[in-house]
Write a structure and sequence with these properties.
alpha/beta; 8 helices; 9 strands; globular; binds SN-glycerol-3-phosphate; binds calcium ion; GP_PDE_dom; PLC-like_Pdiesterase_TIM-brl
Length: 225
């Protein structure tokens, strides 16, 4: 069962920062999860919300500001918003990276970047999973690349997620952990998909989800997994 650090190690360090990703790696995760939006000039920025307001000292929409401007805003502990390139270079193949597409227009730039790391830097498809609640964005990903592992995110209907996962040849289904039972976990696995549950933080929930034999757990506290 894979241990995946949510937004790095969000329980210990500011989410989606290099510090948080390094902390997750120090804990010994198999993978990190992160969220992306585009800047106004097309840089892939690692940030959860579409605005700066909650996690930085700035205000406004990420996709209305340039990379240079976005880099002027501070996150606590002297962090700035990382680019996806900075995260790839920090991780340097030490674990896989689950990239969650949040912002519009991210599918093609992400595929271009991943293909560059595979072709030029000796990474492989096992270093990546692309997930999203925006299933049209996942369809675009599959249109651009036949090999990249895709994770279908859902907080509602597992049968619909299975049908869509088959349609786009996904590798994993990522359900909100409260949706899971032992039976529906087995059903997804029998249909050919790995099951990555999110976001499981409390020890008793972790024990319960582990008892369903999921394939991965995404947690703010990866040391508890
Ligand atoms: O990828 C799982 C989880 O991160 C989805 O929800 O809101 O934390 O991005 P959220
Ligand atoms: Ca996420």
């Amino acid at each position: 069962m894979l241990n995946i650090g949510h937004r790095g190690a969000k329980g210990y360090e500011p989410e989606n920062t290099l510090l948080s990703f390094q902390k997750a790696i120090d804990i010994g995760v198999d993978g990190i999860e992160l969220d992306i939006h585009l800047s106004s000039d097309g840089a892939i920025m690692v940030i959860h919300d579409e605005t700066l307001d909650r996690t930085t000292n700035g205000k406004g929409f990420v996709n209305e500001l340039s990379l240079q401007k976005l880099k002027t805003f501070q996150i606590e502990k002297e962090n700035t918003i990382p680019t996806l390139i900075e995260v790839f270079d920090l991780v340097n193949k030490r674990c896989f990276i689950n990239i969650e597409l949040k912002g519009k227009g991210t599918s093609k730039p992400v595929i271009n970047l991943i293909e560059h790391y595979i072709e030029e830097k000796n990474w492989n498809y096992g270093h990546f999973i692309i997930s999203s609640f925006n299933w049209s964005a996942l369809q675009e990903v599959r249109k651009w690349n036949a090999k990249i592992p895709i994770g279908v995110l859902t907080h509602t209907d597992l049968d619909l997620a299975i049908a869509f996962a088959k349609f786009i040849k996904a590798e994993t289904i990522h359900p909100y952990f409260h949706l899971l039972t032992k039976e529906n976990t087995i059903k997804m696995q029998n249909e050919g998909f790995k099951v990555f549950a999110w976001t499981v933080n409390e020890t008793e929930d972790i024990q319960k989800i582990k008892s369903f034999h999921v394939n991965g757990i995404i947690s703010d506290f990866p040391d508890r997994i």
